Amino acid sequence: MATLTPQGQTASGQRATRPTPLRSTEALRSRRPVLASEVSRWLRSMLDRPLTSYHLVLGSVALLLIVGVMMVLSASSVNAYLTVGDSYFYVKRQVIFLGIGSLGALTIMKLPPVTLRLLSWLGLALATVLLILTYTPLGIAVNGNRNWLYLGSSLFSIQPAEFAKLAMIIWGADVLARKYRLLDQPKHLLVPFLPVSGILVLLVMFQGDAGTAVVMAVIAAGILWIVGAPLRILLGLAAAGVAGIITIFVTSSVRMQRLAAFLDPTLDANGVNHQANAGMFAIASGGWWGVGLGASRQKWGSLPEAHTDFIFAVLGEEFGLFGSLVVLAMIGILGYAGIRIAMRADDLFARYAAGGVATWFMVQALINLAVVLRLLPIAGVPLPLLSYGGSALVANLLAVGLLLACARREPEARQLQTKKSMRPRRRMTTVVGSRTGQGGSS
Q1: For residue 102, how many other CB atoms are within 10 A of its CB?
Q2: Are 214 and 367 in contact (CB under 8 A)?
Q3: Of the candidates 190, 207, 209, the residue with the CA atom closest to the CA atom of residue 198
Q4: Low-confidence ranges of the chain (pLDDT < 50)
Q5: Residue 190 confidence (pLDDT)
Q6: In degrees rounded to 5, what are phi and psi of residue 373?
Q7: I want to staple 229 with a disulfide (CB 3.0 to 4.6 A). Which of 224, 235, 308, 381 is the partner?
């Protein structure tokens, strides 16, 4: 064994070699590909598990709901105190709607596919009737849009368009799955799905709710794309959609004012541009890490609709860029999970339904975020699972229940559930011995 002398030499007279910084750097560089491959292998093994899609949906939705309740409390507390004298007014209602929606999601998740497909027809009919009722004295206008039904109390007012989105997705998935072998023919591809969807979109658009109408139109087009519609049909629908959007703006003076304000941020800064500018100022005030939960300044009357359509602006102000990116990551994971479920499903109904829900959440989230970031004019579209609103939250949670149901019916997930159901239950046998000295005759 060689030993070092005080002069740094070994007992044999040779100087000991020490690793140079260059060699250490080369070792680290050679180690990086190994670490990357190990992380990639671990991530692949996690994603290949049978219930990964289910857990991705459940985890991302749970985190978004927790953040949403916190932000509704923070963003609405000032407005609630000034209007009704209770800072917790809106968050208490949001928690009630959260409970109702969670029960609905659990029910949908447990329903057999046959029952769910049959109920889709009833749901479509009910959604159509409710949309028509908004044109009767039961309909009330909120922010210029006659898209609410008043059922005797503010707690029981509903927005039928939110449930019409879900009904259109489930019904469309059922119809297109039944006609799968005929979808190479345009008449079977488009009829009856496109006319019925068009009627729902028009009913919503004539209420004045152009943002929701655009979301529903994109959902219908997304389902047709998932089914495999030819490019010429999709281009035709896109052209019709552009013409419809132009018509929506041209025929409404309010929307033209919003468009002018979007093109010129300095136009009427205290009027039509006030909400958009206040939202941008809130996000800019957040910086990297935010001003802290509950410390938003814009919610003190400067930002209208702080707890609904512009809740992301308050989130950006209080949690900063880091918190905003975390929320965006959760939304992205939810969208990825929906697409993953659609791609892995071997049942056509589950594939189309999961793809429709993923399209809904992603498109609506993108429109809301684009509005808050001044990339689009004001559209009046809430942020899914985060914004305040009973109808929107309940409808979103019902759609989450549908996603979870589709995730549980993936081939690998079904095999795992079958193995668990066939696994024999453990039985416990207890032997009780007799005691000596007892049981004698009297």
Answers
A1: 17
A2: yes
A3: 190
A4: 1-8, 10-13, 16, 437-442
A5: 95
A6: -90, 10
A7: 224
| CB neighbour class for 274 (10 Å; exposed up to 12, middle 13-18, buried from 19) | middle
Asked if residue 228 lies in contact with residue 351, where contact means CB atoms within 8 angstroms, the answer is no
Residue 112 Cα distances to 36, 62, 108, 221, angstroms: 42, 24, 9, 27
pLDDT tens column, 108-121 = 999 999 999 999 99
Contact 394, 381 (CB under 8 A): no
pLDDT of residue 99: 97
Q: Among 436, 385, 399, 403, which Cα is nearest to 62's? A: 385
Residue 35: what pLDDT? Answer: 73
Residue 274 and residue 63: Cα distance in Å, rounded?
31
The token pair at 420 is 């668990």
Alpha-helical segments (H) within 156-230: 160-178, 186-190, 193-205, 210-227
Bridge partner list, 15: 9
Please compute, for residue 359, the number of CA atoms within 13 A of its CA located in the half-sphere on the CB side. 25
Task: Give DSSP secondary structure letters for 223-234.
Answer: HHHHHT--HHHH
The answer to whether the beta carbons of residues 239 and 248 sit under 8 Å apart is no
Nearest to 183 by CA among 143, 225, 151, 155: 225
* Residue 349 CB contacts under 8 Å (≥ 6 apart), including other chains: 113, 117, 173, 174, 177
